[in-house]
Amino acid sequence: MKISLPTHPLRTARDLDPLLEAIGDARIVLLGEASHGTSEYYTWRAALSKRLIQEKGFQFIAVEGDWPDCFEVNAAIKQEEATYGTAAKLLSTFNRWPTWMWGNWEIAALVDWLHQHNKQLPHEQRVGFYGLDVYSLWESLQEILHYVEKQGDGAVQAAHRAFQCFEPYGDDPQEYAHAVAFVSDDCEDEVTDMLRALRKQVASQQTNGLLDREQKFNAEQNALVAVNAERYYRAMIKGGSASWNVRDQHMMETLTRLLDLHGPDSKAIIWEHNTHIGDARYTDMRREDMVNVGQLTREAYGRNKVFAVGFGSYQGSVVAGRKWGAAPETMTAPEATRGSWENLLHEQLQGENALLFSHELRDNDALRQPIGHRAIGVVYRPEFERFGNYVPSVIPERYDAFLFLDQTQALHPLPTHQDEHTPPDLYPWNY
Questions:
Q1: Nearest one of 127, 124, 123 to 62, comparing CA atoms
Q2: Model pTM?
Q3: 187: DSSP letter
Q4: Which whole number is the average pLDDT over 293-313?
Q5: Contact, 293 vs 248, CB < 8 A?
Q6: Would you state the pLDDT for residue 179?
Q7: What does the record list as GO biological process (predicted)?
Q8: Residue spans of alpha helices (H) in 11-155
Q9: What is d(CA 59, CA 40) in angstroms, rounded to the nearest whole number?
Q10: Could you tell me if 211 and 118 are in contact, meaning their C-beta atoms sit under 8 angstroms apart?
Q11: For residue 425, is pLDDT > 80?
């Protein structure tokens, strides 16, 4: 396919100037990635995030990670001193597969920068780091128990009932899901009652400043995670698009709560896979009745207040597992298949990186039709890539801008000791 496209050079962080201008007054900036294991996706997102924080006053980064682990990072980067030791030590909290997603040297560098940046600001203005995902059922239940037992009356009994309901399944959400998927004996009522009781308890307490509000928010968010994780695991066993939608709707609900927590003028930076931040209505996900964060944010806040940036590359290396729960490997990401979006850009740019804007692409008739767009998950088999790693996408509508990085390298994981418990397999949507 021979198509001439308008592009902008992308060599240094200063080349992001036109992107900052295009973002304008957007309240939510969604930053994607075509894999969970590519170094350049993390470093370019970090470079853009720093500029959004410094030049446009964005208050927090929210990522495709678990709430309890990310909140530990959030609390640490707002401290006066780095009592957590090193960023690498702090990130060992991400010890559940896939550990490399947030336990890597690229994120460690960002954590160090956030801490240094925050030290210059009053506590109320310090930049946050939060997790949007829904997998931390047991961890969130344990966090709730610690909170309510410290607070005393109120939600203690409801929290204990919820915890006891899940106890027979150990720490294995998949065992719970298999046990209750097709029967009425589940823990839905217990986690819902716990959330209701916790909200009532929090509402009755006096709040002093953002830090206090954030601690109460943390307790309530863990209860919300438990409610939606219970729904997610039951839906996952039944198959179809329901579990995907539960997950992305939870991430959207969490984002909305975070924006409300930080006030009516708050601004958010989101780091997630392209499959979450690129509007699902302009991919084949629509046929499966799947929604995602990109679609939901546009619908909720208006397209002029949301700016989605997709990422992609032509070839290189990537960190992933060959099956669910497998040890991470550095694998070759082969040349993108002929006729794909990445192949088209490679042929035009002859190995150069580039920044593209959707408003400059929409007049191109060829791009009004879906084109294959590479997507690599935490599970990857390069030899079978062309059979299932390309999402048909109307690129100029799915994103507002696109960062193309022709040659990329694998992420640099930290030597994290992996917890024995692995989240259930999300196949076929391991993004």
A1: 127
A2: 0.95
A3: S
A4: 98
A5: yes
A6: 81
A7: response to antibiotic
A8: 17-23, 39-56, 67-77, 87-90, 105-119, 137-151
A9: 23
A10: no
A11: no
Enumerate the β-bridge partners of residue 329: 320
Residues making up the chain, counted from first to last:
431
Higher-scoring residue by pLDDT: 175, 394: 394
Residue 82 and residue 111: Cα distance in Å, rounded?
Answer: 11
**Phi, psi angle pair for 315, to nearest 5°:** -165, 170
The two tokens of residue 352 are 């150069």
Within 13 Å, how many C-alpha atoms sit on residue 16's CB side?
18
Predicted confidence at residue 183, as pLDDT, reads 65
What pLDDT, on the 0 to 100 scale, is given for residue 317? 98
Distance in angstroms (rounded) separating the CA atoms of residues 183 and 180: 5
SS3 265: coil
Measured CA to CA in angstroms, residue 315 lies from 331, 332, 348, 374, 376 at distances of 11, 8, 15, 11, 12
Alpha helices in 239-292 (DSSP H): 242-262, 274-277
Residue 428 has pLDDT above 70, yes or no: no
Distance of CA 335 to the CA centre of its chain: 26
Please give the Cα distance from 155 to 199 (Å, whole number): 9
Torsion angle, alpha carbons of 215, 220, 222, 228, to 10: -160
CA distance 71 to 277: 22
Instruction: Spell out the domains of the chain, with CATH numbers in brackets.
Output: 8-64+268-408 (3.40.1660.10), 137-238 (no CATH)
Contacts of 55 (CB under 8 A, 6+ apart): 20
Give the span between the Cα atoms of 253 and 229, in whole angstroms.
13
pLDDT for 427: 45
pLDDT band, residue 213 (cuts 50/70/90): confident
> Cα angle vertex 242, ends 236, 246, to 5°?
90
153 vs 164, higher pLDDT: 164
Percent of the chain at pLDDT > 90 equals 76
Distance, CA of 400 to CA of 287 (rounded, Å)? 22
